[in-house]
Design goal:
- The protein is 40% helix and 13% strand.
- By secondary structure, the chain is α/β, with parallel strands linked by helices.
- The strands form three sheets. The protein has a six-stranded parallel sheet, sandwiched between helices.
- The longest helix is centred in the middle third of the chain and has 20 residues, at 181-200.
- The chain starts with a helix and ends in a 12-residue tail after the last helix.
- Residues 1-38 have low confidence and may be disordered.
Length: 373
């Protein structure tokens, strides 16, 4: 953790401790991962931002499920600001939330505020993003994030028949936000498939933005998963390394928000869907990207049906409140530096043009009208 992040987190925790002093006597829970067992269902849900469609959907769906079950819910969005998220969590616990569901803006800075929350007997569920450097995370619910990247890498491998290709095939890899723990899993899953082809020369990276190993993924990360930053980065690569008629063949984009920016850059550079258009990956099945898939501007997206994630977290909360053993299916993978966090992993799946109707529309995940059908 950087010095600035430490100061921010510790200062916030100090304020939090003072703010809770007056209400500590009101806490009647028993502590640990079973803090809410047998008690009220009072849930604080902290989502990172409203700037991405998926977080709005995740938050509202979980809130609806919990309220239908009689829980009290405080849903907050942090505008991608760590200090704002810390303050919101403080207020949720001070307001009586005995279960916290946190999708972290920055998984490295929440340890102090969660330590104070744990003193108030809150149970903490990390939602989709692992919270690092703290023993005070009780459970983690997410998709198999390594598999997300693996599916992207395997899609590229299969579509280009890399095992039998001689190359050179040009690829430009991107990675997600350096402060998002999931981003390293996405990249690692894809790069474990693709790096051998880079090393053999079948794939080439004209920009030089080619991490030598998974550990270097953050060197090509796009802060905040921002579409405009991805667009600017792609603009720079195209103008600097693709001149004289050279074309990019593949863009590894870890999610849909980056893909939208990359696609805007390609359009500005004169690329159009057709035989010479690059293969582009994505993730999340955002409406704009599903439309882009239908229009031939994006090749695929990895769909994580976040309704199943919300339902799983809802079920975990019900088990906590009932005092039952919380269901997990992974107790080995997600080491946050302080503990291996008991986790529940869900499976993602690939969506291409031919799948849009059957997987996304027929299931009710999106409406046909939202994607021009």
């Amino acid at each position: 953790m950087s010095k600035t992040k430490k100061i921010l987190a510790l200062a916030a925790a100090g304020v939090f401790a003072l703010s809770l002093a007056s209400c500590a006597s009101d806490s009647g829970s028993t502590g640990g991962g079973e803090a809410a067992a047998g008690g009220d269902c009072n849930v604080g849900v902290s989502m990172p931002t409203r700037s991405l469609e998926r977080w709005i959907n995740d938050g509202e769906q979980l809130k609806s499920l919990l309220e239908e079950a009689g829980c009290t819910v405080d849903l907050q969005y942090a505008d991608n600001k760590t200090d704002q998220q810390i303050s919101q969590i403080q207020n949720q616990v001070a307001g009586g939330s005995n279960i916290l569901v946190v999708a972290a803006v920055d998984g490295q800075v929440l340890a102090p505020v969660l330590a104070e929350a744990k003193k108030q007997d809150a149970t903490v569920i990390a939602y989709d993003r692992l919270i690092n450097g703290t023993p005070d995370v009780d459970y983690y619910a997410t998709f198999d994030n390594y598999k997300v990247g693996q599916l992207q890498g395997e899609f590229i491998e299969t579509q280009l028949d890399l095992a039998n290709a001689t190359g050179p095939i040009s690829i430009e890899p991107f990675a997600g936000s350096p402060d998002d723990n999931n981003a390293k899993f996405f990249f690692s899953g894809a790069w474990d498939v693709l790096l051998p082809y880079v090393e053999s020369g079948v794939l080439v990276v004209p920009s030089g933005q080619s991490p030598a190993s998974n550990d270097d993924w953050a060197s090509i990360g796009i802060q905040g998963w921002a579409s405009d930053k991805a667009q600017s980065e792609m603009d720079n690569r195209l103008s600097s390394f693709y001149t004289g008629g050279d074309k990019v063949d593949v863009v590894l984009s870890p999610n849909d928000s980056l893909a939208i920016g990359i696609e805007a850059s390609l359009k500005s550079a004169g690329y159009a869907p057709g035989a010479d258009y690059p293969l582009i990956t994505g993730q999340d099945a955002d409406k704009a990207n599903v439309k882009a898939i239908l229009d031939g501007e994006q090749s695929m997206t990895v769909w994580k049906d976040t309704r199943t994630l919300g339902k799983q977290v809802f079920d975990m909360i019900q088990e906590i409140v009932a005092g039952d053993e919380v269901t997990v299916n992974d107790t080995k993978t997600y080491d946050n530096g302080e503990k291996v966090v008991p986790s529940f992993l869900l499976d993602p799946e690939v969506v291409v043009k031919d799948d849009v109707q059957t997987k996304l529309i027929d299931s009710g995940f999106i409406k046909a009208a939202d994607v021009g059908l």
